Task: structure prediction
Amino acid sequence: MNIENAHHSSESIELVSAGRSGYRVLVAADASETVQRAASVLTATVEEMTGVRIPVADDTQPPGKNEIQVGITNRVSPSAAAGLGLQEFIIRSGNAGLILAGGGDLGTLYAVYSFLEDCLGCRWLTSTVRHIPKTATVTVNPIDKTYAPDFTYREVFYRDSWHRDFAEPNKLNGQGAETNHDLLKELHTGWGTRCAAHSANRDSTETCCYMADHKAPFQIHHLSRGHSCQQHHTRCLIRAMDPNQVECLLCDLLRNIHE
Result:
């Protein structure tokens, strides 16, 4: 059955009831490592909640009535994720089960974490502190959600946010995060890179610079001391603009105010 064309059920889904589940998780036969990880996160978390391990199968198996599609499988029309970006996803319930799928593999991983958080009440508070509710029954209310992040690049500048066990469920994809997916590396290549300004007295002003080619040499004007600084302390996000010019936004602001 093509789950995209199945009638969207107005009834809740009993994912786990009385210590048993009639569902299985389905991935494509050629599913990537990231999608397989998404399926593993889903089944491991539900098992931690209920003590019930939902089996995982690939889409070469005969279709079943109760399936959770993680990523695009042969049960799901490719048009279900048409137009979605790499980090965007859908969460959709129907008579044939559930779809948790992204426009890219990273989106599929985010779909699983969002399902666990929004539908099942799980929380990842730090890299070592989680809230996984304990229950004998897991009921999923009808849902048809499409998600696109407001910010393409998301990073919080403190050490714990770089840990994979915090970054992944909270959808942090900055260069400090230990996610290390190939798709994430491709995204970073498109964004450019970041650098840092340095001051021996630690009084440098945080700066954001624009630069077309992040491999080109550049300098950042130190507002406090009036000299050029290179690398280390203050993080800067490099973006593409004029390849012949590197401009400090704060310096430009001060110049405009002065003029």
Remarks:
- The chain has two domains: 3-147, 193-259.
- Residues 193-259 form one domain.
- The first strand starts at residue 13 and ends at 16.
- Helices lie at 33-50, 105-119, 164-167, 182-191, 249-258.
